[in-house]
Write a structure and sequence with these properties.
about 425 residues, single chain, binds flavin-adenine dinucleotide, alpha/beta, 26 strands
């Protein structure tokens, strides 16, 4: 770790997560020889975030195994890592940064890769002791430290993070209730058959699901510790631990104050450039036009997107620009189910099931105007691999062939 006072960097990268780390790696791979500083507010070297709700929370992988690269890797490539440096101000004209600890930096190019912070509950008790987000190693360490003295847990939010956390916590034999305000889990990202499949799986593993209901209050004791969750029908679920997985707020405050264009995150063009000179944004915080969302301006929250955008920003800085045009993909592990998703299902008009969900191995295809736009594959790696290619090609499959799970996807005829 490097101590900072005032340091001039050819490239300053703010955020030492997936996107930031990959940007530094890509710059060196592309032959960039200038100085690179990876400035992050967490104390750790860059690490993988997905295991936080999976193997790391389960205790199956120690921290060393989720580090993106060992310390020596960064030293060998002369990437300076500034840990515990939270950037609070960007002066886009002077090309300088200020940190909460007083350190300042000057930059030639800035790559903003600050991700987002968990959205917390706006209701009374939302910040009580025992209420946790799941974004950083420190969040999960705090959850793990509290687990031995916890029996009743309420997870709020039926998205991937809430569902993954619920699955792990059931392994520890805790009583787990999960609350989703919409009428099905995964409703923002998946079709109904997939939602219902995951609901059945969680119920079969003993998760107490509450769908279509909101939270009124986190109840607390005299010391301000959570004791329960009051739902808006008056039901009280006992809980000394509440895990909140209701999305993130992009961490773009200093960039917006500096005048960057944006709203839901900071807007970038196909080269990941923001509206500020020499400032790029990548990963969860970067809103971009995505071909696989019909050109709509969207943010993606995935490792793939962070890594691919990092390469695009590095390419632009090294004078070999390429457009960001990557096919989105994602995965989620719950119990013994490996879900792999290719493409974006937003705007689908038809779903086609391939295989029987009762076998725990099936796929759900999403079509729009006859074209395959996305596929969720549960324990179906072959479908996933073939779907990626077909989605990229804009393939319009014959629906009967598509529904025939015995027919390899690549042999399905076009219409
Ligand atoms: P991050 O990796 O979040 O890195 C941002 C870094 O910037 C953080 O270290 C943050 O602390 C730091 N930072 C923020 N503000 C400042 C500041 N002002 N100054 C300095 N530093 C700052 N994706 C998948 O594809 N598959 C999965 O299975 C999956 N599972 C996930 C499970 C969990 C629990 C979580 C939290 C995420 C998961 N994701 C998954 C999403 C994936 O981890 C993110 O999309 C990815 O980490 C985004 O990378 P990023 O670089 O944009 O942000």
């Amino acid at each position: 770790m490097t101590q900072a006072a005032h340091i001039a960097l050819d490239v300053a990268i703010v955020g030492a997560g997936h996107g930031g780390a990959q940007a530094a790696i890509a710059l060196r791979q592309m032959g960039f020889t200038g100085t690179i500083g990876l400035i992050g507010d967490e104390p750790e070297l860059p690490y993988e975030r997905p295991p936080l709700s999976k193997e790391y929370l389960a205790g199956d992988k120690p921290f060393e195994r989720i580090m993106l690269r060992p310390a020596a890797f960064w030293a060998e490539r002369e990437v300076s890592h500034f840990a515990k440096h939270r950037v609070t101000d960007v002066d886009a004209m002077a090309q300088t940064l200020k940190c909460a600890n007083g350190a300042t930096f000057a930059y030639g190019h800035l790559i903003w890769a600050a991700g987002g912070s968990p959205r917390m509950l706006p209701c009374p008790g939302g910040n009580a002791k025992g209420v946790f987000g799941v974004r950083r190693k420190s969040d999960v360490d705090a959850i793990m430290a509290a687990l031995p003295s916890t029996q009743n847990i309420v997870v709020i939010g039926g998205g991937y993070i809430g569902l993954e956390a619920a699955a792990v916590l059931r392994k520890f034999d805790k009583h787990v209730a999960l609350i989703e305000s919409l009428d099905r889990v995964l409703s923002r990202v998946a079709g109904e058959p997939l939602s219902r499949f995951y609901e059945d799986q969680h119920r079969a593993h003993g998760v107490d699901l509450h769908l279509g209901i909101g939270v009124d209050e986190i109840l607390t004791d005299d010391e301000g510790s959570a004791t329960g969750v009051k739902l808006n029908d008056g039901t009280v679920l006992p809980a000394s631990m509440v895990i909140v997985g209701i999305g993130i707020i992009p961490d773009v405050g200093p960039l917006m104050l500096a005048g960057a264009t944006g709203g839901n995150g900071v807007d970038v063009d196909a080269h990941c450039r923001t509206s500020l000179p020499n400032v790029y944004a990548i990963g969860d915080c970067a809103a971009h036009h995505n071909r696989f969302a019909d050109g709509a301006m969207i943010r993606l929250e995935s490792v793939q997107n962070a890594n691919d955008m990092a390469k695009v920003a590095a390419a632009d800085i090294t004078g070999a620009p390429v457009d960001y045009d990557a096919l989105p993909w994602f995965w989620s592990n719950q119990y013994d189910l490996k879900l792999q998703t290719a493409g974006l299902s937003t705007g689908y008009d038809t779903t086609v099931l391939r295989g029987d969900p009762d076998t725990n191995s099936f796929s759900l295809a999403y079509l729009k105007d006859g074209r395959l736009i996305a596929m969720d594959c549960v324990n179906k790696a072959k479908d996933y691999v073939q779907a990626r290619k077909l989605i990229e090609e804009g393939f319009s499959p014959d629906p009967d062939g598509l529904a025939n799970a015995d027919l390899p996807l690549k042999e399905v005829q076009a219409i």
